[in-house]
Fold this protein.
Amino acid sequence: MSSFEPERYSDLDSPLHRWETQVKLISLFILLISIVIAVDISQALAGLIVSMLLVLISGLPLHHVLRFMKWPFLFLLPLLVILPITAGGESLFRYHILTVSHQGLQLGVLFMVRGIAAALLALIMVGTAPFNVNINALRSLGMPGPLTQIFLFAYRYIFLFNDDLQTMRRSLASKGFEMRSSARSARILAVSVAMLLIRSYERSEDVFNAMLSRGYQGRLPSGQKMMIKGDDMLKGLLVVAAALFIQFV
Amino acid sequence: MNQKMAIVVENLSYSYSDGTRALNEVSFSLAEGESLALLGPNGAGKSTLLLHLNGLLRGQGKVRIRNREIGDESLRWVRSQVGMVFQDPDDQLFMSRLEEDVAFGPANMELSQKEVDERVQWALKCVGLSDQAAKVPHHLSFGQRKRAAFATVLSMRPPVLVLDEPTSNLDPRSRMEMVSLIREQQRNGTAIITATHDVNLVPLLADRVLLLNRSIVAEGSVHQIMSRRDLMDDLGLEMPILADLFETLQKGGMYSGAIPFKKDEAVGTIREMLDEVGRSGQI
């Protein structure tokens, strides 16, 4: 099984898992907007606390959250390092030619906190419902049909692509190939990846034939209609209220 | 004989875009409820022929499905009548959940949600995957994915099934399960055409055999075709192991009866031979 499994825990039983998907996506999106437009650290911290609380309520295992958050953290860390020394403003301390400014540090922290909070919300959106349920909900909310199909099929076949990639790596290794910083290694990798892409293209033709054989006319059958209940709306109102609260901190 | 015809192919020829002639004046028919095995070497045009049976490829000649010729206006109807199972199950499991894949065909037939749900449950039950309905395809084993691909077509309840190497890469138990599935569909009145390299399964799968090498080489019952070593050798095919054994015994003058193709037939024949040896004291 692949280690890339964002919906591994989508079958847990928590208030967030039971939350009707359309309402959940809209509410969390409003909260996300509120967090990313936060103008100071106290607002961003409030957003981070709300996001962490939601993650706690979702019951997603800590190791899963940490594994997911590793990449956003690594992506945002350079901002925390670079902004304090490039942003300019009142000097906090100096080291040789480098000057760390108060405003730069605040900006770096603000970006970091906002980014982490937003990534946690993204994890909740993706991790508390099966992928196809999320995409069908987005389709119900107006996402164009072709885009829906692109997302659904890309998600389905990325695992197969990953399997083919692993097979290719094993095949290369079993023939003595070692990755080096050389033109030869680069050429071999480039050719191997190109073959994977060509095979993917050929597979896409076979998949299309299979779809046509089962009556495909350009649109996916519409999924089961979603049932919005009173407590779904209540959860939505609470999250929207949290989003407004963040703005007034 | 007034049998209703499920498939009628007349003078079908097809060339690929690079000019390679893939099929040459192929004609055959398949009656409703009949099972036909399509045999031939690699590159004989088996898959190409199968792709014509639901209009995915359109060559010269005529293809009629249940008395209706395949054309632009009949394409949608044809695809509701002909269920095609491809060799690679991952080409047919393209939705995120198994139940969505199995529902895909019936949903495109504009059936009610209730009818779609009933067909999904029935198809999954037929292939023994009812408890895997919510699974993502890449979490299923290869054998399960092969059966799942079968279910995605069964749910459309087509009167004609076209199977391309349904037992390839399956372990022995899964192969026999697939054979049982196929035969059960035939007992339910489905006409079935199966392209396969698995000569030992042909006697279990089919009533008739079509030997293809771009054009029809021979056609007849399993016994008529697969006991002919000359025909099989010419196409680079092996005889079924039991038939191979008894044909060799026939050639050596040690056996003069009909060639058995199934295990129970062979056991019966060997018993008779041993009894004969016991009576006469001679081989």
Chain A has a mean pLDDT of 89. The interface with chain B takes residues 1-2, 130-132, 135, 152-153, 155-157, 159-160, 163, 203, 206-207, 209-217, 221, 223-224 of chain A (CB under 8 Å). The radius of gyration of chain A is 23 Å.
